[in-house]
Write a structure and sequence with these properties.
Shape: globular
């Protein structure tokens, strides 16, 4: 018997607007189906589900793609890319460590050429030929290396010759330090280990290590001299082009890096000279032996960020303790603190902060890291090497603003 209202709709012919339960258990509002044979949308085909046509005036419901689809569309996941970058960096720095005997002299030569290169411009403006201006750059670079080498050789020779003259005083001081530490409650083993730092045998071993280091530096000095010639000639040829690094952005980053390194070392050398003169005069005035050696040490350690002041303070303070006891040693510590803190902590950063732009944490880490990678010279070259890594990897990348800000860059948005 047929119902008076007419035949009811079948399961496949639900009226428009009726609520129909989907196979997944969700209820959706149905609409007029597309004619048979109409192909499904690409999104629906990719997701593997049927997507109903939207009702007129209603925004269609779009299901988000699955995680696998998102990863495939954007490449590797972010965490995977970070791990790959860290692994690649470890491989690169391991290679640098194995080649440190070759790369360290090249880094020294590059920094010296960067400092001496501005000599070329005024000479070429006055009509000097290019080869003669290049020769002037090489001469200035050699003068810088000669001055530094002479200072290190003189300081090392005087330090090695001083130790035998004060062997007895050092032995007495070691015993006095041992007795003082044991009176404070330290065990005899701990007191012996602490007092051994100023033992004559320990200092003689350190002096022998200094002599070996100077000899090794003299061997590598030949490579530095050769690198300086080749780098100065290359800088002359590159400076004649319109685009040194290929693009305007590359030239901007390169110019900023070179000027920053140059300003950092020139300012550090200027303040280091002032600090060395003041420290040397004070040590000479109070009677500490070989003040010229400690003045040179203060000048050299001024190029080591954060911990250079401590490295330059310990030897003269120990020698003052040997010569004049605790009052003289405390006077040396107080004078160094006043001179070095005022100049290096309060005044000097105002001149180099914009040129360097590295956070304190990254600066300290760079000292330790580059010393481990390329040896003791890495403590002096840590700032230009860290700036080079940032200039190569972060500054050309507009998406690395956060990393540049964490590194201490005062203008992380610029390129």
């Amino acid at each position: 018997m047929t119902d008076a209202a007419g035949p009811g709709p079948s399961a496949d012919e639900a009226p428009t607007g009726a609520t129909v339960e989907s196979p997944l258990g969700a209820t959706t509002e149905s609409s007029t189906r597309p004619p048979a044979g109409t192909p499904a949308s690409p999104t629906a085909a990719a997701a593997g589900t049927a997507v109903a046509e939207p009702v007129q005036g209603q925004r269609p419901a779009v299901e988000p793609p699955s995680p696998s689809v998102r990863v495939a569309a954007g490449g590797l996941a972010h965490g995977t890319r970070v791990l790959i970058t860290i692994a690649a960096a470890c491989i690169v720095f391991a290679g640098v460590w194995f080649a440190r005997d070759i790369l360290a002299p090249a880094a020294v030569a590059a920094v010296v050429v960067i400092i001496a290169h501005p000599v070329r411009r005024p000479l070429e403006r006055r009509g000097w030929p290019s080869w003669l201006a290049t020769t002037a750059v090489i001469v200035v670079a050699y003068l810088i290396l000669a001055i530094l080498s002479t200072l290190l050789v003189v300081a090392s020779a005087q330090f090695i010759g001083l130790l035998p003259d004060y062997a007895d005083e050092l032995t007495t001081t070691v015993q006095a330090v041992y007795d003082w530490l044991t009176s404070l409650g330290m065990t005899s083993e701990a007191a012996s280990s602490a007092a051994a730092a100023i033992d004559p045998k320990t200092l003689l071993g350190f002096a022998a290590g200094v002599a070996d280091a100077v000899l090794g530096a003299a061997t590598a000095f030949f490579f530095v001299l050769a690198y300086v010639i080749f780098m100065a000639a290359d800088a002359s040829s590159l400076s004649r082009g319109d685009r040194v690094f290929g693009t305007a952005t590359g030239d901007t980053i390169g110019t900023r890096y070179f000027s920053g390194v140059r300003r950092y070392y020139v300012v550090n050398a200027s303040f280091g000279l002032v600090v060395a003169v003041l420290d040397g005069l004070f040590l000479w005035w109070i009677g500490v032996p070989i003040p010229i050696v400690w003045a040179i040490l203060a000048f050299v350690t001024n190029f080591i960020p954060n911990i250079g002041f401590v490295i330059g303070l310990i030897p003269p303070a120990v020698l003052a303790l040997v010569v004049g006891g605790w009052p003289l040693a405390l006077a040396v510590v107080a004078a160094y603190c006043v001179i070095n803190v005022v100049l290096q902590v309060l005044v000097q950063p105002k001149f180099v902060s914009d040129a360097v732009g590295l956070s304190l944490t990254l600066t300290f880490f760079s000292v330790v890291f580059w010393t481990l990678v390329i040896g003791p010279i890495g403590a002096i070259l840590c700032i230009p090497l860290t700036l080079l890594v940032r200039a190569l990897l972060l500054e050309p990348d507009r998406g690395a603003v956060a990393l540049r800000r964490l590194s201490g860059d005062p203008h992380p948005e610029r390129t």
